[in-house]
Amino acid sequence: MRRARRRFRRTGSNRALRVYLVSKARLGRWDDRYCAYWGVSTAVTRRVRRFITRGFAVGLVPTSTFRPGDFGSYHAQRRAADMGLRRELIGTARGLRRLRRFQAAEFRRRGRTRPIELIGPDNRRTILRGRVAPLTEGTPLEQQHDNHVHGAF
Fold it and tell me: Are residues 82 and 107 both part of a single domain?
């Protein structure tokens, strides 16, 4: 991480910044700049920040966090985030694999993190209301989450 930070300070390039931030995320350290790619709010709970940090560490970016008018949603309570892809990976097989791997890792981690919701492209690894609840292909909720991983805590 120190080497990445020095390179970023020396060059100031976006690539060097991304390498530095991924290094920081892999160490489990929060940085508000994780939310800068899509410009989402950083005003979320500590558990959501950890979710974002884990996602950023594997190459995902938060696409949605706080949505004030979304009543009935954990997003309005600052307790949820959606982790998606950078522009160059949207719609690619590589991007889909990355989303599925992250969702699988979060699903395996569920005993420690206790998510209320975990929804993504893998319908078998879905959690709703704190319980494992596989989704049926083609349902509205399933289709809304084919391009990102949603986590609420």
Answer: yes
| Residue 32 near residue 60, CB atoms below 8 Å | no
SS3 152: strand
One domain for residues 144 and 114: yes
| Predicted pLDDT of residue 141 | 95
Residue range 64-102, pLDDT digits in tens: 999 888 778 899 999 999 999 999 999 999 999 999 999
Res 50 pLDDT > 80 = yes
Domain with 8, as residue range(s), is: 1-30
Residue by residue, what is the 3-state secondary structure of 26-37? HCCCCCHHHHCC
Residue 82, classed as helix, strand or coil, is: strand
The pTM score is 0.92
- Quote the CA–CA distance of 81 and 28 in Å, as a whole number: 17
Q: Any idea what DSSP says for residue 89?
A: G
